[in-house]
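Researcher: We're teaching a course module on how sequence relates to structure. For the next exercise, students receive a sequence and then see the predicted structure as tokens, so they can try to spot secondary structure elements on their own. Here is the exercise chain.
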Amino acid sequence: MARYTGPKARINRRLGAMIYETAGAARAMERRNTPPGMHTRGRRPSNYGLALMEKQKIKHYYGLGERQLRRYFDAVSSKQGNTGELLLLMCERRLDNIVRRCGFTKTRPQARQGVAHGHFLVNGVKVTKPNYLLRPGDEVEVRDREGLKNLYRGVIANASPDALDWVAFDSENLKATVQGLPGPSDISLPVDANSVVEFLSR
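Model: And here is the predicted structure for the students to work with:
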């Protein structure tokens, strides 16, 4: 999606989840976790509204545009298995998501920016597309520049990376190796993916 530059706490409050992980958005969510606006309290959204909110969670969390989300949906809808799970598992394999979950950055927008600026190599080749889908055997590492390595070492030292069974992370050499494919338990976003599938199938 086009990079969202508006108030992140407002999105978190509207969707009722910590979609954006910045410190300011987290503090604002703690202070006021009700939806924004004067006339939203006490109103129960329709089934359509609930499904739309779940879809918005996926788009904001993974940084997807509408067309990109539908491309992912089209790619998994013909495969066997739970379409909602397959959709989220495809999102989990994105380069910017793995950069974030390994602890290279504190938020997904930071990971997206780092990838777009060419800070990371995949199998020794610079990749600038945050939506690059990683496969088993792929290696992600920081480019061999002292400034970049010092930057990411500092972030990792103060970060709490997710423990991923399918990705091995070497914090000393700033390298992540994809060892397999993610499973349903590896999905990091709590969302009703089945309602999103129904929404996109209309």
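Model: If you want an answer key for the exercise: Residues 101 and 162 are 5 Å apart (CA to CA). Strands lie at 120-122, 125-126, 139-142, 167-170, 175-178.
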